[in-house]
Design brief:
- There is one protein chain.
- With 156 residues, the protein is mostly helical.
- 79% of the residues lie in helices and 0% in strands.
- It has helices spanning 2-15, 30-53, 58-86, 93-116, 122-154.
- Helix 2 runs antiparallel to helix 5.
- The N and C termini lie far apart (50 Å).
Length: 156
């Protein structure tokens, strides 16, 4: 009787084994990848919901939307250029300079736009600024995660 219980317990242990996916050296964890995507989603969606609900004119909403898109693109482009240069992949100086220039301009346009916006209360300005920065940071992080994952898988 005791022997049957042991066999049943052993079978239960065998069924509990899960397939463990091995992470490559240098590859970000799935939790970090998920957190990066969640941060981008939260930042961009809250920014866009804020624009949708704002009592601004349509051309102002378009300005802030264009800055978000330009900022996201310039952040990813800059991260790629910096990473390529660091890894010894050829990057022309003009592209490297334009990447930095575009990123700085996008942040400056956001700051100047919020500073000069008289129809937006101070708390709303902070909301747009923080959502913008969160979106840029997460876009850079996602690009880094993609490159790190790609690099880790190429090593094998």
């Amino acid at each position: 009787m005791a022997n049957e219980n042991e066999i049943l317990l052993d079978k239960g242990k065998q069924d509990d084994t899960k397939m463990k996916v091995e992470r490559k050296e240098g590859e970000p964890t799935p939790a970090f990848k998920g957190a990066s995507w969640a941060a981008l989603l939260v930042g961009a969606v809250t920014y866009l919901i804020g624009l949708y609900n704002a009592s601004m004119q349509l051309n102002e909403k378009g300005y802030y939307f264009a800055i978000l898109v330009f900022g996201l693109y310039s952040a990813v482009s800059l991260q790629k250029a910096v990473r390529d240069k660091y890894e010894g992949i050829p990057v022309t100086n003009i592209y490297y300079g334009i990447s930095w220039f575009a990123f700085i301009i996008s942040v400056a346009l956001m700051a100047i736009g919020l500073y000069n916006a008289t129809s937006i209360v101070l708390s709303e300005k902070g909301f747009y600024g923080m959502a913008f920065v969160l979106s840029l940071f997460s876009a850079i992080t996602i690009q880094k995660n993609i490159r790190d994952t790609q690099r880790a898988r190429e090593r094998d």
